[in-house]
Amino acid sequence: MAKTDDLRVKRTRKLITQAFFTLLRKKKFEKISIQEIADSAMINRATFYAHYADKQDLYDSLIDDFLTDFTAILDESSLIEGDSVHVKEIESILTRFYDFIRKNPEVAQIIVDKSQDQALIDRFLEILSERYAELFAKLEVREQDVKVPNDFVISYITSILVGTLKWWTSSSNRMKPNDFAHLIIKLISNGHLTVLGVNINREE
């Protein structure tokens, strides 16, 4: 594809995305029509279909971009040492995550609205599982000598993240991302993780 054509494609996709985000501020995903997106982007329906198969394809594309960016903020820092979890490292990752969410509120709202979508949940679990395979391989959560399945632990932590995400995207609060991340980690590490038998390392 020629550079000029490539720039034209990116520009048109950006117009469509911005139009979609504008509509999302007013109504739910399910209520938005292709015609409304096209009208808002000041293009015709044929142009929309030249870039996306349908509204679901546009949604999937935005989610893919979101997850790609989300994965990028998860660095390779060592989160564990021996059998202990470094909560300061996790707190740093969460700070970047909530800062990223604040800068991408519309996509975050899609995530919240679709938080019960099993396909989306599976994608999150897949990313977390792959990114932190070593962590979950070493982390053995036990209750009365019975090993708790890692997929349950991941699902449990993910549900907490989705819950906090709902508050973060809907509240008009001015809490800083690092303060919010610290609060979340404090709640989790002092309660949930400790109860599950995870060793917590709080050193810088």
Verbal overview:
This protein has 204 residues and is mostly helical. The chain is built from ten helices and five strands, in the order ααααββααααββααβ. The chain has helices at 3-24, 34-41, 45-51, 55-72, 87-103, 105-113, 118-131, 133-138, 150-170, 177-195; strands at 80-81, 84-86, 142-143, 146-147, 199-201. The strands form two sheets. It has a three-stranded mixed sheet with strand order 1-2-5. The chain has a two-stranded antiparallel ribbon with strand order 3-4. Helix 4 packs across helix 6. Residues 194-202 have low confidence and may be disordered.
Tell me the overall shape.
Answer: elongated
Cα separation of the termini: 49 Å
Q: How does the major sheet shape up? A: 3 strands, mixed
Unreliable runs: 194-202
**Total strands:** 5
Features of the shown structure:
elongated; 204 residues; disordered C terminus; mainly alpha
Write the layout of secondary structure elements.
Elements: H1 3-24, H2 34-41, H3 45-51, H4 55-72, E1 80-81, E2 84-86, H5 87-103, H6 105-113, H7 118-131, H8 133-138, E3 142-143, E4 146-147, H9 150-170, H10 177-195, E5 199-201
Parallel strand pairs: 2-5
Antiparallel strand pairs: 1-2, 3-4
